[in-house]
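User: I'm putting together notes for a lab meeting next week and I want to include a structural view of one of the chains we've been expressing. I don't have a solved structure, so I'd like a prediction I can at least talk through. The sequence is below, exactly as it appears in our construct file.
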Amino acid sequence: MRLQLPCLAAAAALSLACSSSSSPGTTVSGPPPCTAAPTPVVAKTPATQAFAGSSAHCGVAPYTWLDTPDLGDVTQKGPHDHIVADVSQVLFAQGNVKPTAPVHDVDLDQIAYVTQDRGKKVEATALVAYPSDLDAKADLDVILVLHGTAGFTDTCAPSSTSDAKPLIAALAALGYVAVAPDYLGLKGLGAPTGFLHPYLVGQPTAIASLDAVRAAQKLLVTEHGTVCAKPRFATIGGSQGGHAALWVDRLAPYYAQELVHVGVVATVPPADLVGEVNRALRATVPASLNTAAFYGAASDWYGVSNRLSEVFLSPLDKTFAAELSATCSPGDDLRTKQIADIYTKTLLDAAASSDGVAKVTPWGCMVAENGLTTTSVKRLAPAYPGYGVMWVIGEADTLVDPATERPAFDALCGQGMSMQFLECAAATHTKATAWALPEIIDFVRDRFDGKAPSAAANCVRSAATQWRGTPS
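Assistant: Thanks for the context. Below is the predicted structure for the 472-residue chain, given as C-alpha cells.
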C-alpha cells in the first residue's frame, strides 16, 4: 500500500553518493543576507475572509484560520546533506532529461516549521534543497514537490528516509529551491503529532504544503549563503501528491496571497474521489485498500473515528485505525480479502446505487468535499498571466483509474480550469510521472519564464502517447 512519488526507487539506489551530517554544513561567507521573507497574507479579501471563517465541513467543529506572521517559521533543523551534481546527472540521464543550464551541487536540510490545523498552531516537517556552488548571490524560484502515499503516522515521514532526497536534490540542481513537505501527521522531527495523517483530506495537506514554501524562504534568510528564495513557486505532485497539488491550486489564492503561484503539475491524481471510491466499493480493486486507508485515517481528522463500525466489519472497525498508527504499510492482512469481507453491507449497497456513496452521512460528505470535481470550495482564478496546469495519467494505471480521471479532467475544464493533458501510453501508476518527467520540467520552466500555455492544447484530451522519458 506504500506508494512513493515515481522516480524515488531509482534515486534511492544512488543515495550512497550523498554525504550527511547532524548539523548544517559550512555556509558561504561574504554575501549580504537575503531580504526578509514576505509576511504571510491569509484571507485578506472579502471572498477569502468568508471562507477562512467557515472552512469547516462534514461536521467538523467550526474554526477560523490563523493569520499570524509566524506561519512558516523554522523551529528546528535536522540532518544536513550534500548531494553532488553527478548524482543528479545520472537521474537526468535515466529519465532522458536534458538540462539547459549547468547542473549544481546541492545542500539539503530537514526542517520543522510552524503551520496550522483547524485554526490551531501545529508543526510539520519538510526537506529543503538548494544549489550550494553558486559564485554570486541569486534569487531562485521555488518548486513545491508533493509525495505519494507514504504512510499515516510520524514514523513514516519521507524526510527521514533516504528515498526522497536524490529526487528533491535533482530538481534543486536545475537551479531552483525545492521544498518537499511531509504533510500534516507525518512529522520527522520534534514531538509527536498526536493524530493520524489526514490521508486525502485536501485542506490540511494544502495548508501545510503552502507553509512549507514559506518555511523554505525563511530558512534561506538565516543561511547567509548565496541562495535566496523568491516568493514565486510551482507545484509538482504525483498520486496522493497529485491530489494535493490540485488542492494547493485551489487554496493558494485563499491562504497564501503573498506568494505567486505560477502553475501545477498533477500526475496520476485521484481528482474524482467520489468516482474512485464508488469504483473501489463496487468491486475489489487495488484502490479498495486505499479507500480503507482514507476512511481509517480521515475519520480521525473529522472526529468520527468512533463510528468506523458504519464503514468496516468487526473487528476491523476497532483494529484498522490502530494498524494505520503502527506501520507504514498497513493492510497486509486485507490484500487477499474481498470488499464484502472488509466493508459493511450498508456502505457497499450505497456505493452500488445510482447515487453512490455521496449521500451517506458523514462518509459520503468526506469523499465529496475532498474530491476536486465535487468539493464546495470555489476555485479562484489565478492571477499569474502564464499560469497553467498539466494533468498526467498513465494508460495502464490500475490504482488511479484512467476511465474515471479522463472525464474528471473534462469536468474541471468545464468548471473553468485551463489545463494541458498528457496520457502516457502503457504507463502504470508508478511509471507515468517518470516517463513524462522531461515534459514536466519543460512545463515548469515555461511557467517561471512567463510563457502562456498552449492555447491549442488547452483542455484538449488527446490520445495516449509515448513521452520523452518512455524507455526505448
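A couple of points you could mention at the meeting. The beta strands are 18-21, 74-83, 106-117, 120-131, 138-146, 177-181, 227-238, 260-267, 388-394, 419-424. The chain has two domains: 8-13+39-271+380-448, 273-370.

User: Perfect, that's what I needed.
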